Amino acid sequence: MARARLVVCAALAAALLAATDSAAAPTLRLLKANPVSVRATGFHSGEAVRITVKAAHRTAYASARADSHGRFTATVRGIAAPACVSLIVTAKGADGSRAVFRRFPLCTTHGGPPP
User: Fold this and answer.
1) What DSSP character marks residue 61?
2) Domain 25-115 belongs in CATH node 3.90.550.10
3) How does DSSP classify residue 26?
4) What is the model's pTM?
5) What is the DSSP letter of 115?
6) For residue 42, what is the DSSP state?
7) How many of the other CB atoms lie within 10 Å of CB of 23?
8) How high is the mean pLDDT of the chain?
9) Rounded to whole angstroms, what are the CA distances from 60 to 16, 37, 105?
10) What is the pLDDT of residues 101-110, one digit of tens each?
């Protein structure tokens, strides 16, 4: 009897972990700054996504589709984000998923790298 309870508890715990993992909030990670390339996770399976990149007073767009695990990689051509420029990348999914990546300038006001 105790063994059956243990098996049931283990199955419930596994189901809860799987549900939590699939419901993870969408996230973006910067892969490259020139051209801007991002990796996304947590979107709905097969979701169409519109990516907007703002850097150095310029805006560029790209589109992607999440794979069966809710992930995608996208490169946005025509825009670069050097270290001294702030960068905002937004990914909005057709199903309502949304993720934002923000990077503040990594240089001091006089243009040199931080100490």
Assistant:
1) E
2) no
3) P
4) 0.73
5) -
6) S
7) 8
8) 84
9) 39, 12, 19
10) 999 998 876 5
